[in-house]
Design goal:
alpha/beta, Rossmann fold, 6 helices, 5 strands
């Protein structure tokens, strides 16, 4: 399973590098894509019209949804605290997605290089990046 973060979806939906689109389309066909509330909220925030919102909701509906529970929130805070002493200041939103991915043993599909600095996290690498 691969948890796609907001940066991956924005690139896919709006600009879409060919290799990124191909990789994500393959994962979607295989049913290997997961999402989370944070990603849905960020994408919803960016919708500027009714048709755009309907397209987004239809696209996200069949995906595996990873629910955030109390333990995941605590793990997100723990990740932020673990990274801070080494000078890595990660946004709490990134830590939340990492906590979900680690809990579910998912890779993360992202264009955000902040995720590179998180130990034990598997990243899905787009071909050619």
């Amino acid at each position: 399973m691969v948890l796609v973060d907001t940066s991956g979806w924005i690139e896919f939906l709006d600009r879409g590098r060919a290799t990124l689109r191909a990789d994500l389309e393959t994962l979607l066909r295989r049913g290997e894509v997961a999402t989370a509330g944070l990603v849905l909220a960020e994408l919803r925030h960016g919708c500027r019209s009714g048709p755009q919102l309907r397209t987004l909701l239809e696209a996200m509906e069949p995906l595996v949804y990873l629910e955030t529970d109390r333990g995941t929130w605590l793990r997100a805070g723990e990740l932020a605290a673990e990274c801070a002493p080494s000078g890595v200041a990660l946004p709490l939103a990134d830590c939340l997605l990492v906590a979900l991915a680690l809990r579910e043993d998912c890779a993360v599909f992202t264009l955000d290089r902040d995720f590179d600095r998180i130990p034990r996290l598997r990243l899905f690498r787009v071909a050619g990046s």
